[in-house]
Amino acid sequence: MKRVELIVIGGGPAGLSAAIEAAKTGMDVVVFDENAKPGGQLFKQIHKFFGSKEHKAKIRGYKIGQELLAEAQETGVKVVLKATVIGIYEGKEVTVMIGDAIEHYKADTIIVATGASENMVTFPGWTLPGVIGAGAAQTMMNLHGVRPGQKVLMLGSGNVGLVVSYQLLQAGCEVVALVDAAKQVGGYGVHAAKLARCGVNFYLSHTIVKAEGEEQVTGVTIGAVDQNWKVIPGSEKQFEVDTICLAVGLSPMSQLLKVAGCKMIDDPKRGGTVPTVNQYGETSVNGIFAAGDVSGIEEASSAMIEGRIAGAAAAYALGYLTKEAFEMKFKNSEDALNALRQGMFGPENKGRKDLTMTEEGILLSQSLLKKGYLAEPEVTAFPGVKTKIKGIHPVIECTQNIPCNPCQDACVKGCIKIGDHITALPIVGEDSACSGCGMCVAACSGQAIFLVDENTETGYANITIPYEFLPLPEKGELGKALDRSGTAVCQAEIVGIKSAKAMDHTNLLTMKVPANMAMTARFYKAMG
After folding, report:
1. Quick one: 166 and 259 in the same domain?
2. Widest CA span in the chain
3. Which of 15, 138, 172, 203 has the lowest CB atom count within 10 Å?
4. Confidence at residue 389, expressed as pLDDT on a 0 to 100 scale
């Protein structure tokens, strides 16, 4: 039997963060991960993270994964791959299957960071080839470069469903519809909005009736549901698809903690069966900690902070940190975690459908919640939208209290203000002195910022939009400008294309449109 001071089970964002934090203090740390590559979900996440600098905002998930792996190597963390932990037993004994061999370890402390698994729903035809989870679709696209299908229907409007739908579009798939039995979009409105302006239709209060096909998916029928979640006869709609993608939630993979004798509870707000933990992530079994989705479903940013807290707590428990040093680390991490848990998407608001106002007292957009896009009359109610400014200026269509502030940091002219409260809506000052650099457009993790310039040519306006599709159009190209709903509203000419390393693959397209379309045109589509 091998002895280790700290065993971390799971090499995802929480596990790696925990291992790094503990190893920095000089602890002997080993990470067991059943996969062939560490990093967990991070390497599938090609979108930019939300939050602030300390949460790695505006950095893409796979780059965060690369940073964590490099840091783990620098701090001496031993990572054992293709290693499946079978059980945790009395005295913190751990059995691990590595290849065909069973190995026995005894640890002084254990951090379980096994993450979560995708939920599934059943319907006639759900076992046909072509019905896949959203995570599987991400794996195919972003790890293996394989397009999951040509025509895809997405079930689920939480952040996973919204983000993966956008990535399907980036991979060249057609997302024919986004369906959810709920009455309103479950994820961030900015994620929904960037789908809607690409032409994706939302069918809320709908569910899948059946998948069609003999040997594989060839179509799908959906139907509207009543207040009892029953399909309303006569409401059925049929789509020709080859792929049905399911994003219907995640469940913590907490079985090992139950085997270890940890006290467990069923908490729907945390995703299902989870261990009871204290503020440091320690379970009811002394010296066994839980971090990340295994203790409650949240974003990867939160999982990394929870990992850091658990890693520091394990180091403190074994005397590698003084009480003062540990309390300082905990306070900093707790502050960062609490910042992410504020706003209308915070844990205390999970599942609530009765929120009607922003923190600033502005009515939430009902069009955004029910259709996926802002109705034009609603836009000017928000402090990031100013119509009286002449010359080039940002228009920020961020209308929900999301923990995110990269736009404030990106603006060297100070045109954009959020303040210390990370969930506050961005404000554009009336006396804005925008330079037109476009860094705010590129920095926005939700792609919700546009530059509007109505003083370039009589009768026309230039609109600069974020663009993350290939191939890029060419300067001088004529195409269509689409509005927030994805409807073509006018001709558009590409007059500028800007790409820079600092923009991290968010290209800036500047299109010339008729002046009366300045507050309407929000996306570009090539002719044909």
Report:
1. no
2. 80
3. 172
4. 84
Give the per-residue pLDDT at 53. 83
Lowest mean pLDDT among 186-190, 349-353, 414-418: 349-353
- Shared domain check, 423 and 321: no
Side chain identity, residue 90? E
Asked, for residue 360, whether it belongs to a domain, the answer is no
For residue 217, is pLDDT > 90?
Answer: yes
Residues paired with residue 32 on neighbouring β-strands, in sequence order: 9, 80
CB count within 10 Å of CB 253 equals 19
Q: 397 and 279: one domain?
A: no
More confident residue, 57 or 522: 522
Signed CA dihedral, 261, 265, 271, 275: sign only: negative
In a domain, 370, yes or no: no
The pTM score is: 0.95
What are the tens digits of pLDDT across the range 29-47? Answer: 999 999 988 998 999 999 9
Question: What is the C-alpha to C-alpha distance for residues 11 and 34, in angstroms, rounded to an integer?
Answer: 9
Q: Are residues 162 and 132 in the same domain?
A: yes
Number of domains the chain contains: 3
Kindly state whether residues 109 and 134 are assigned to the same domain. no
CATH number at residue 262: 3.50.50.60
Domain encompassing residue 194: 120-246
Q: Which amino acid is at 231?
A: V
Question: Mean of the pLDDT values across residues 81-94?
Answer: 96
User: Could you say which DSSP state residue 29 is in?
Assistant: E
Q: Give 379-395 pLDDT, tens digit per residue.
A: 999 999 988 888 899 99
- What pLDDT does residue 390 have? 82
Give the closest residue to 303 by CA, choosing from 512, 39, 522: 39
Q: Are strands 151-155 and 174-180 parallel, antiparallel or unpaired?
A: parallel
At residue 108 the predicted structure's pLDDT band, cuts being 50, 70 and 90, is: very high
Q: State the Cα–Cα distance between residues 194 and 466, nearest whole angstrom.
A: 10
Distance of alpha carbon 256 from alpha carbon 102, whole angstroms: 17
357 occurs within a structural domain? no
Q: Are residues 397 and 515 in the same domain?
A: yes
Distance CA 405, CA 338 (A): 15
> Residue 91: CB partners within 8 Å, gap ≥ 6?
106
Q: How far apart are CA 287 and CA 285, in angstroms?
A: 6
CA 165 to CA 142: how far, in whole Å?
13
Neighbour-count burial of 166, counting CB atoms closer than 10 A to its CB (0-12 exposed, 13-18 middle, 19+ buried): buried
Residues 224 and 283 in one domain: no
Per-residue tokens: 79 = 């990572």
As given in the structure block, the two tokens for residue 347 are 């844990």
Which amino acid is located at 270 in the chain?
A: R
